[in-house]
Every structure is written in structure tokens, then in C-alpha cells.
Design goal:
Number of helices of chain B: 8
CATH class of the largest domain in chain A: Alpha Beta
Low-confidence stretches of chain B: 215-258
Low-confidence stretches of chain A: none
Oligomer: heterodimer
Bound molecules: adenosine-5'-triphosphate, magnesium ion
Number of strands of chain A: 16
Pfam families (chain A): ABC_tran
Helix content of chain A: 25-40%
Radius of gyration of chain B: 20 Å
CATH architecture of the largest domain in chain A: 3-Layer(aba) Sandwich
Strand order of the largest sheet of chain A: 6-7-8-3-9-10
Number of domains of chain B: 1
CATH topology of the largest domain in chain A: Rossmann fold
Keywords (chain A): ATP-binding, Nucleotide-binding, Transport
CATH class of chain B: Mainly Alpha
Largest interface: A-B, 34 and 30 residues
CATH superfamily of the largest domain in chain A: P-loop containing nucleotide triphosphate hydrolases
Structural class of chain B: mainly alpha
CATH superfamily of chain B: MetI-like
Shape of chain B: elongated
GO molecular function (chain A): ABC-type quaternary ammonium compound transporting activity; ATP binding; ATP hydrolysis activity
Radius of gyration of chain A: 26 Å
Helix content of chain B: 55-70%
EC number (chain A): 7.6.2.9
InterPro entries (chain A): AAA+_ATPase, ABC_transporter-like_ATP-bd, ABC_transporter-like_CS, P-loop_NTPase
Mean pLDDT of chain A: 93
Chain lengths: 377, 258
């Protein structure tokens, strides 16, 4: 555990970048420092590897003051990833990644072997090993940056806006990769960003900082969204925090109906037998599936049977029942031309449909549940 | 005895001998200049306020005519090659110091921060990161310094035939053999071109990591390209200092525009 204990940083010109900050960063999880530009995130991060020395307060790792060990030893035990990767332009990719193992005295072959192993881990093709940084895309460079930080298998990873210079699609890929790596390797990651979405997506814990280096709130993302500590945090979370919060509610409790779901080979007689059932859920359309049960599209009841699969109304994007969140379910319903969301299983077979009203009920139920849990806890 | 390659015996050297002498008198000062410029440059990078005064001094020294140096030095080092080479070494500083300073400063902040964060101490950082990345700038500086030095050696003829190929100029007048002057000028120019080409080659060998230049062989002193969006951050690597006056043509002036 990294313990930041009432740390203050005053720069020589008098700027107080961090003001009596206390933070307990749990092991094997991602802790995100988020806040507006200039609020002291980088300063805080750099105090952890002593690139900046605090003016007051102490930082302890597993109970040991970081001042107590040689600075370069401390740093070699911590990976550090920054915006634009900061790769050594004069070294090949594999040698960039091998930097810290080499510093630790590994043989060249062993260090390079390790570097190649890491390239695979961060999703880089082995053929890039002997290239130079200028021959890589921004996203690939960023992956190299992550691999380089992981090279000596340090327990701690410090990341300062590592993904902010790449486009949103690449960023999403890198974020997913980071979550996967974190799951596999169980690193203690301190991650700085000014993007609240990124913070909520990645963070196990999120520390919201405000200008002047004050800690505004330190909480898991779901709690941040449900009960922001003050107006600043609420404002920082943005206008759609209610919707975003739904990301933390599973769709598993949603009451689906299979009444309007019909296979392509359903006969008029079979359909007639289900008429009452269909009327009861008041579905405006039938969801037609192929013989495997995979959804094909929506169809007005009077046009079925006999509807051509190519002329059905598009069902938009389905959500995976139980795995995707209520936010995804609501999004499907809102985007669906019929106002109903299509739920599928992991194989993509339709397991039922849900109306916006049903989803609304599930949201209310989930909120009530959460409140009860909060009161109890 | 009137041929292009017939060198008057008072010079005590064959044509090839003169070339060897010329190269020695031109290159040793640049090498010495480089050895001086490395620590001076590093000092200027570390102690920022030192850089402007150091630049003034090198520029002022550059403005001192070689003849003035000779007058002073001759009492100590006599009519020797050394007397010719000392001013040349001093002159080379005017290009080499800024080349090193700008080269080292062209290392992106992120790269330095990453190096520090990985636990590279100041010495390792300098030798393993800053210096290698400064190589293109350094070689650009060396190109200007060398070519300038090659052209300036000829002045040595003023202190008793210490000007190598330049001595042919004096002899051309003395013996009324203009062809010797032509020989002097052409040979010096060819030497300059060859050495310059060798330095370009050296840069190519030392910096396989630099992206291929779009501007052809002239784009000597380029720091490595960084990620595309940040091209604007690039600074000029070598500022063409006064030394460029003799050799405008080979100076990497073009690069500053990039
Ligand atoms: N070396 C320095 N000297 C003086 N003030 C500094 C120095 N470095 C940073 N500051 C100031 O300290 C404050 C915090 O800076 P810091 O870099 O930690 O911000 P940040 O949260 O990382 O911002 P950003 O999101 O823009 O990167 C800012 O007001 C900044 O101007
Ligand atoms: Mg910052």
C-alpha cells in the first residue's frame, strides 16, 4: 500500500501545488487522480517516485518511508508511463523496453527476451521489435511505453495521462488493454488523467482533486456518481452523471419477455396461439430471429409470417444480458426504432426483449437496492 | 616543370604530401575544438545563464583575425603548424558549442523525464540519452566547422609556408604560375567536399534511428522526428553562426526552417 500522509508541495516560487494531501492507495488496484489542469496531479504522482520532493509530509510504501532508500533503486522498482510515451528515439523498440532490466544488470539476451515477451503482452506485433520509435503510430508508441514500464516487473506503475495524446478509438483500446493487464498482473497502478470518463472507466478508487492541490473526494467511481461530496465534484462529473451511474448496475435483474420473439419459420397458426401473450406485453412489433435464435429484425405483426429477412426493421445494437450494464440496455432501447431493447446471450442468440418502461423500473429497483445497501453498510 | 601537379621544391612536399598536411592542420583543430566544446556545451546546458556569455566569447574570438592570433602566438609557438592550428580550434568553438547545446536541448522533455523515472542518474542520462540524440546536431556542427577549417588553413602561408595547400597561392604569385593557384583552390574545394560527404556518411551510420530526410542530403542536423503531431515543437538544431560565412553552401541552414 502506498500511503500519502499530509503531503504538501510548495514550489520555490511560492505556488502550492499540493496541499496537505492524504491518500491511501490500495495494492493491486487502479487508483485514479483526476481533476482540472494545474490541480497538482502530476506533482502528486512525481512525489511518489521522488522526481519531486515534498515540502512537508511523508510517503510510505508498505510502511517504509520512500526517503529511506536510494532514489534510483526506488525508481527502478516503479514503472512510469507518460503522455507521448517519451520513448528513446535512438533505440529500437526492443531496446527501449529492455532499458530497466539492463540497468538492473540483466544480460542483453535475457533483457531482450523479456522485452519480446512484454511486446506480446501489450499487444504489439513481434515484427516491430527492431523498429525505431519514429516508425510506430502514436498508439503503438504508447503500448511500448507501457511495456517498458512493466519490463522489470515492478509492483507499482505510475501513469501520467498516458493515453491523452491518442484518438478516442485507440484510447479505448489502450484502456481495455490496461484493465486486462491489471487483471493478469495485479499491479498497483496510480493513474493520472483529467478525463473523468477515463477515471470512472479505469478506477477502482478515484481521487478528485481541485485547483490548489486539495483533495475534493476519494471514493470508488459508483459512489462518486451516486453521492458527490460537493458542488465542485458534481460539476466535474458532468450533466449526465445519472446516466453514467447506470454503468454500475447490472442488467441481470431486468425482466425480459420472450413473447414477441418469433423464429423465422413460425407459422400463422403458431403465432395465433401466442396472440394473447403478445397482447399482454403490448409489444408494437415482433422480433424475428433466424433458426439459431439470432435476431434478424423487427416486423409488424400483420406482415408476419412471410416477411423477408432483408426487409425487417433493424434492431440496432443488442446488449448482452447479465454482462452489459443497465446503461447499455437503456442505450439499446433508446436507439431501437421500436423503443425496445434486444437482449442476447454470449453467443448472440436473442434471450428476450425489454421496453424502456421495463428498463426504467429496473433502474428504480436498482437504486432502491443500492440505497438499502448504503444504509445497511 | 610547369604541370598542374608539379609542386615547387621550396614547399618540400609533393601534391599528396600537401594534401596530407592540409588535412592534418584542418582536422586536428576541429577534434580539439570538439573535445573542448563537449564539456563547455554540457556546462551551458546545466547552468543556463552561462550560455549567452559563452556565445559572446566564442563569437568575439571568431571575429579576431587569424593574423592577430599569429602575432601573439608566434612568440610562444613560433612559425609552426601549432600556431596555425590554435586559432582554427578556437574558431571551431563558435559552431560546435551551439551545436552541442542545441542538440542536447533538443531532447524532448518527456524523454528526459522517462529516463529519470527509470532510474538513470545524470551521467547515464547524458551518455545514454542526451548525447546520442544530439549526434545529428553535433555532426551538422562538425560539417560546418570542418569545411570552414579546411578553407582557413591556407592563411598559414603568411607565417612561413605553414598553409599547406594555401602555400601554392603564394608560390603561384612568386613563380608566376597561375596554375598553382588553380590547383590550390580546386584541391581545397575537393577536400572540403569529400570530408563533408564522409561526415554525412558517418551520421547515417551513427543514427539509423533518424527518419529519412525529406530534404535530401542537405538536411544534416536534424534531431530525430518525434510523433507527427509534435513536429512543431522541433527546434532548429544548429544555428548557423558566423563560421557559416565561408561555407554557406554546406551549412545546414535549411534545417532551421523545419
Ligand atoms: N516547477 C514548478 N515551479 C512552480 N510551479 C509549478 C512547477 N511545476 C508545476 N507548478 C505549478 O503547480 C501546479 C500543479 O502543477 P501540476 O503539473 O501538478 O498540475 P497537473 O494537475 O498535472 O495539471 P495538468 O493536468 O495540466 O497536467 C500548477 O499550478 C503549476 O503551475
Ligand atoms: Mg500533469
Amino acid at each position: 500500500m502506498i500511503r500519502i500522509d499530509s503531503v504538501t508541495k510548495r514550489y520555490p516560487d511560492g505556488t502550492v501545488a499540493v496541499d496537505r494531501l492524504s491518500l491511501e492507495i490500495p495494492d493491486r488496484s487502479i487508483t485514479v487522480l483526476v481533476g482540472p489542469s494545474g490541480c497538482g496531479k502530476t506533482t502528486t504522482l512525481r512525489m511518489i517516485n521522488r522526481m519531486i520532493e515534498p515540502s512537508e509530509g511523508t510517503i510510505l510504501i508498505d510502511g517504509v518511508d520512500i526517503q529511506k532508500q536510494p532514489v534510483n533503486t526506488l525508481r527502478r522498482g516503479m514503472g512510469y508511463v507518460i503522455q507521448n510515451a517519451g520513448l528513446f528515439q535512438h533505440r529500437t523498440i526492443v531496446d527501449n523496453i529492455a532499458t530497466v532490466p539492463r540497468l538492473l544488470g540483466w544480460s542483453k539476451d535475457r533483457a531482450r527476451g523479456r522485452a519480446r515477451e512484454l511486446m506480446t503482452r501489450v499487444g504489439l506485433d513481434a515484427s516491430l521489435a527492431s523498429r525505431y520509435p519514429y516508425q510506430l503510430s502514436g498508439g503503438q508508441q504508447q503500448r511500448v511505453g507501457v511495456a517498458r514500464a512493466l519490463a522489470a516487473d515492478p509492483p507499482v506503475l505510475l501513469m501520467d495521462e498516458p493515453f491523452s495524446a491518442v484518438d478516442p478509438i485507440v484510447r479505448k483500446g489502450l484502456q481495455e488493454e490496461l484493465l486486462r493487464i491489471q487483471e493478469e498482473l495485479g499491479k498497483t497502478i496510480v493513474f493520472v488523467t483529467h478525463d473523468i470518463d477515463e477515471a470512472i472507466r479505469l478506477g477502482t478508487m478515484v481521487a478528485v482533486m481541485r485547483t490548489g492541490g486539495h483533495l475534493a473526494q476519494y471514493a470508488p467511481p459508483a459512489e462518486l456518481l451516486s453521492s458527490p461530496a460537493d458542488a465542485f465534484v458534481e460539476d466535474f462529473l458532468g450533466a449526465d452523471r445519472g446516466i453514467r451511474r447506470l454503468s454500475f448496475f447490472t442488467s441481470a435483474g431486468l425482466e425480459l419477455t420472450t413473447a414477441p420473439v418469433v423464429a423465422l419459420d413460425t407459422t400463422a397458426r403458431q403465432l395465433a396461439a401466442r396472440e394473447a401473450e403478445i397482447a399482454e406485453v403490448a409489444a408494437p412489433h415482433l422480433l424475428v430471429t433466424d433458426l439459431d435464435g439470432k435476431p434478424l429484425g423487427w416486423c409488424a405483426p400483420e406482415d408476419f409470417p412471410g416477411a423477408e429477412p432483408g426487409r425487417l426493421l433493424s434492431f440496432g445494437r443488442p446488449f448482452e444480458f447479465g454482462k452489459d450494464s443497465l446503461r447499455a440496455a437503456l442505450d439499446c432501447a433508446v436507439l431501437s426504432p421500436t423503443g425496445w431493447a434486444v437482449a442476447v446471450d454470449a453467443e448472440g442468440r436473442a434471450v428476450g426483449v425489454a421496453s424502456q418502461e421495463t428498463i426504467g423500473e429496473a433502474i428504480r429497483a436498482a437504486h432502491a437496492e443500492r440505497r438499502k445497501a448504503d444504509v445497511a453498510g | 616543370m610547369n604541370g598542374f601537379f608539379d609542386i615547387p621544391s621550396d614547399l618540400q612536399h609533393s601534391w599528396l604530401g600537401l594534401i596530407g598536411l592540409h588535412l592534418r592542420e584542418a582536422l586536428i583543430p576541429v577534434a580539439v575544438g570538439l573535445l573542448l566544446a563537449l564539456p563547455i556545451g554540457q556546462l551551458c546546458v546545466r547552468v543556463r545563464w552561462l550560455y549567452p556569455p559563452v556565445l559572446w566569447v566564442t563569437t568575439i574570438l571568431y571575429a579576431v583575425p587569424s593574423l592577430a592570433f599569429f602575432v601573439v602566438l608566434i612568440d610562444y609557438t613560433g612559425q609552426s603548424e601549432t600556431t596555425v592550428m590554435i586559432p582554427l580550434a578556437v574558431y571551431s568553438l563558435v559552431v560546435l558549442v551551439p551545436a552541442i547545446v542545441d542538440g542536447v536541448r533538443s531532447v524532448p522533455q518527456e524523454t528526459l523525464a522517462a529516463a529519470t523515472a527509470m532510474g538513470l542518474g545524470p551521467v547515464r542520462r547524458y551518455l545514454q540519452v542526451q548525447l546520442p540524440i544530439a549526434v545529428p546536431a553535433l555532426i551538422a556542427g562538425l560539417r560546418v566547422a570542418t569545411v570552414s577549417s579546411i578553407s582557413l588553413v591556407s592563411v598559414g602561408t603568411l607565417i612561413g609556408n605553414q598553409g599547406a595547400l594555401g602555400n601554392l597561392l603564394a608560390d603561384a604569385m612568386f613563380y608566376h604560375r597561375p596554375v598553382l593557384a588553380v590547383n590550390s583552390v580546386v584541391t581545397t574545394a575537393v577536400l572540403a567536399i569529400v570530408i563533408d560527404a564522409l561526415l554525412v556518411l558517418l551520421r547515417k551510420v551513427l543514427t539509423p534511428w533518424a527518419p529519412p530526410a525529406s530534404g535530401g542530403s542537405r538536411s544534416a542536423g536534424r534531431g530525430g522526428r518525434r510523433t507527427p503531431g509534435r513536429a512543431a515543437k522541433q527546434r532548429s538544431v544548429v544555428r548557423p553562426r558566423p563560421a557559416a560565412l565561408a561555407v554557406q553552401d554546406t551549412a545546414p541552414v535549411k534545417d532551421t526552417a523545419r
